[in-house]
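Teaching assistant here, posting this on the class forum so everyone can see the example we discussed in section. The complex has two components, and the goal was to see what a joint structure prediction looks like when all of them are supplied at once.
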Amino acid sequence: MTVMPQPITIPETGPATRPATRTGAQLVVDTLDALGVECVFGYPGGAIMPVYDAITAGSTRHILVRHEQAAAFAADAYGRITGRAGVCLATSGPGATNLITGIANAYLDSVPMVAITGQVAQPFMGTDAFQETDIFGMTMPIVKHSIIVRRPEDIPAALGEAFAIAESGRPGPVLVDLPKDVQQASCTPPGKWRGEAQVLSAPAPEAIAEAERLIAAAEKPLFYLGGGIARSNATEMVRRLVEDSGIPAVATLQGLGVLPSGHPAMLGMLGMHGHRAANMAVQECDLLIVVGARFDDRATGKLAEFAPHAAIVHIDVDAAEMGKLRHAHAPVCSNLKSSLVAIDFEPGEIDGWRSDVMAARETHAPRYDAPGNGVYAPALLKDLSERVGDSFVAACDVGQHQMWVAQHCRFSRPQAHLTSGGLGAMGFGLPAAIGAKLAEPDADVFAICGDGGFQMNIQELATLRRYRIPVKIVLLDNAMLGLVRQWQELFFAGNYSEVDLSDNPDFVEVAHAFGIEAFAIERREEVDGAIERLMQARGPILAHVRIDPEENVWPLVPPGKSNAEMMEKRDEG
Amino acid sequence: MKVEHVRIEFRCAEGALRRVLGVTEARAFSVRSMQMGSDGDRAVMTLALEPRDESRKVDTLLRQLTRLQEVETTIRLTNVPPVAEVTHAAYA
């Protein structure tokens, strides 16, 4: 069996350069420096104060957010873009529990993250002490791993292990809980430590052979591209495979950008709000080559009727995904790049199939000629992303605008599309945009927000202002919880329950109160100028865009239905 | 629902037992009985598990358990071990 070591962290400190003693808190900072951590998002409090005392002497930049959830979301986005674990830092109790949504977000989207929490001193643990929560236990279902550090001399190894686990194999969040007495205690720094990365077996030869047999025999093969491709840094390899093989492709929400929008083989996103051509191709294909995806229910619709004629080649880093929801005829499990290199993607004659699905893509291309003079959000988003070009990065909240971004924006790479897919966490957009801009300063980072989600982390306007982070916010305001309203219209007989947000604040005034440039538009003729103003802005800026409260996201696969049963705008009412 | 028997070997790191049982229950298996021994470094556990519905596959659960950092081996037992069954109070 061949193994593929992935060395991650092996800093060594020689005795000559090592100080005689260091506190645990100083070792935290030393270790973050040694690991090359450039940026930490956090919020101080009682049980993490020793680390905050030490961090002023380190080289790691600390970004003070205004709510710990935003620290976790920003770290998440930082991790998605860099491939290195994003780091968030919080105190015990409420500080730690406020991280939980962000940790869950990273877990469900397989994002590398290290969350460091203060904890009450060990003698107080288990006594219901002030600001004590069992964050180690509370986060167990949503972390890849977690560690309580019991001795200061264990801190470097624990952090090294945390980063190695977070970043290798299938990435995910790791929690490191630091009791206050461990931060305060002094010790002789350990001389050597290393983080052991996960070692993955090579893909099974019999699975490779079966995959190649299925690909060669297929008449209607289709790639199903997922978020694991970006996490494995395999985008370029997949692009070459698609182009060399001629096999058309669909992508999940997290897989958008693996093939640039408009790529000749790209049929679009599949699933609940997917492109009709993409869903039709999945239903008709005889072989589905699933790369870095997990048959999420929002992608598959009614699982029993998903891709009913297809054999499955499933290529993934995580053995636990093999056969979890759909039997894989060829389960190819290993490091994604190793698996892709090992397989010959040589289909037979598929020109007819390719022509058919490409014709369907043209036939069902989205239209942007909506009636009326109001701003049509899909058209605005398409124009914005095309005019900004390859430097465009979008961080979304969750809801209708999130689906419009996925359907209509042009993405040059998967890291350009930051979206809360598995968890579907409103409030992700603004803090994620902050993390993205710090991870990639040359990118043009846009927070595309709904009025509901924006107000869940609106306080981060203060973070933008404090650090002058030039994030551009496009706030699509329909004065509604739009996607809930849409479902109530379509599936709850129009019984609109608690979706009205017509008493929203004046968002331009709110932005001004935080010291951020802002303007509002509501007519279609204003869109060009608004995009230009956003592109020219040198600092943070907010565009408040009023849109039709009754606009819906189309197409739509009703919950529990097959992807073959897509509703279109014409079915409305 | 058919009861499955599995054997899990894991390192005795802090939280490992909670993690193993947590994943098992979160992935829709009820623990009907459990036996465990440990020498302080390693633990061996035998579980009798009942899936909450027929779609749940014990092989998938074992792969999910294997993702845990502390878990070293998992085995689906075909020869049912003498695991203690607790009689429900209603039948006592």
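For the discussion questions: The interface with chain A takes residues 14-15, 18-19, 22-23, 26, 57, 59-60, 63-64, 66-69 of chain B (CB under 8 Å). Chain B has one domain: 4-78. Think about how each of these relates to the inputs above.
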